[in-house]
Give the backbone structure.
Amino acid sequence: MIEEWLNYQEQEDKYVFKLIHVTEEINPDNDLIKHLQEQIITSYRNIDYYKFHLEDASEDEIREYVKNQVIPGDNNQFDRNVRQGDWGEILSALIVSYFQNLEVPINKLQWKLNKDKAVFGTDLIAYNKGEEIKDIYYYEIKTKLDPKIKVGKIPNRFYITVIAHNILLKDELAPTESIAEFLERLFFEKSEFDKAKKFKDIVKNPQNYNRNFELFFIIENSNFTENILEELNNLPPQLDPLKVTIIFIDKLKQLVENTWRDIEESLVNILSD
């Protein structure tokens, strides 16, 4: 369904980074919104866990569990920003899986300790499909209604593109392989030792892998300006190779709100099947 909604197209070389445009082929309808709701609800917990935890629960109890224990609240702008950010990370993971044909090993949102806060660390990691990992991809994801608003402390105010770049660069320059080490521990605890060994080698021998970096920007279609790319293009080329993917969504705010509205019903429907 994602591939019916979105078109993924590489742009001609114009910047020091490779540019991808993702545009809407059709307007989101109720079926697409339901699909997105299912993707969101199963990103926070897997279905088997829901069945285990909600065994013998009534429909009202399922709804209350989702609202109180799973999804970010809707009480203030901070909560809504977390919802928007989570929404963007989930959509980005779908694009990476469908259009880039890469393996996404984990939904980080499953490991939130506080549902009303964003998850720290690299937003997303993916790698090539197949038995041997050769190419690793690191992503920073920003979902912004208006990306041309500059942010940062005065006098160094930058577009969100530069902020995202610097976050990913900071992760890359750190002496640790934090997300790979987390995955090594996770798969070890799950007794999936073959996967744990793969990530152990990434932690110990990162120089043996092709490292790729990508920035995702999910924006309101009408708010796009080339300035956000030009400012990014003017930076020293410290992340290489670098790809920038812009997802243009018409009426982004409305789509995000529609996706979250009554999202608990999607779990009720899944568990009743």
Q: What stands out?
A: The beta strands are 6-10, 18-24, 124-127, 135-144, 210-220, 242-249. The radius of gyration is 19 Å. The first strand starts at residue 6 and ends at 10.
